[in-house]
Amino acid sequence: MKTAIAHSNIALVKYWGKRDQRLNLPAAGSLSLALGDLTTQTTARVIESDTDQLELDGEPAKPAVLRRVSEFLELVRQRAGTTARLAIASSNNFPTAAGLASSASGFAALALAASAELGLKLEPRELSELARRGSGSAARSIPGGWALMHCGESEDGRDAVAEQIAPPTHWDLRCVVLVTTRGEKAIGSTEGMNRTMKTSAFYQPWIDSVANDLERARSAVAARDFEKLGDVAEASCLRMHASAIAARPGVLYWNGSTVELIHRVRAARANGIPVFFTIDAGPHVKVFCPPSALDAVAALASDHALETIVSAPGGAARLMEAV
Ligand code: PMV
User: Fold this and answer.
1) Which terminus of the chain has a smaller tally of CB atoms within 10 A, N or C?
2) Nearest CA to ligand 1 atom 6
């Protein structure tokens, strides 16, 4: 039996669009920070069975989720040259149903636990490549810290992997997740991306803008330039959502509280508080700030966030020692 843990991550330069569906290759690079306080722990164990088993937060998984995980495990089996089935037990220390980025930490922890249980010893870049097959953002949870996901050029995806460009200790920032609703999101990220690619006139301009954002974000992280990082992160987030909103039918992840919180973050910043926001394929708002601004973030969120989750930067996915 092998147990792995991995942290969720939030992109500051977003990934939105695929250049290959089957291999899950991104159409552009992305840049993220791992969230040390949002963790998935996954155990993989070889079983005598014709089918894989999956338990999520102590409950048997829904058939559609089991199917997606089993397809992923098939890739690991092929690589390990085995037909062995696995029992997977995975739990998050954050609310999954709220549509938080559980696929990133989930597939990163699964890639590590399952490959180790089937006897594979993969290098970090091979693990990142494998995790990417489960979910694009999961590739970034393998190196953790400040991670740069390469778009890559190769058709087989071997260079579409993430690398750590700075460790979690590089910059003492906090990410505050402002949870605005309890329900699961209406449109999954793959469907949202595909519809944007196929029908949005703003898709190509969005993709064309990413390389420049990546360069700016990279230098902002290196220089710990909060203002510059906030500027590029908000621009990347808004452009990604603009391309999605312009799809037919429009892919709109925001609710009223999302919009209200965007305004409040901007108003706080105009009043001298160091904050910026980003939003993924859901209605929650993620606010970045130094620890000294946490009280101000809690105050601005008060009547529009059902829950707030504060996280410090996190490290790479790792195997836990057997006890
Ligand atoms: O990893 P996926 O397929 O769930 O896509 C993630 C998409 C965004 O969260 C919206 C952006 C990102 O880069 O994480």
Assistant:
1) C
2) 137
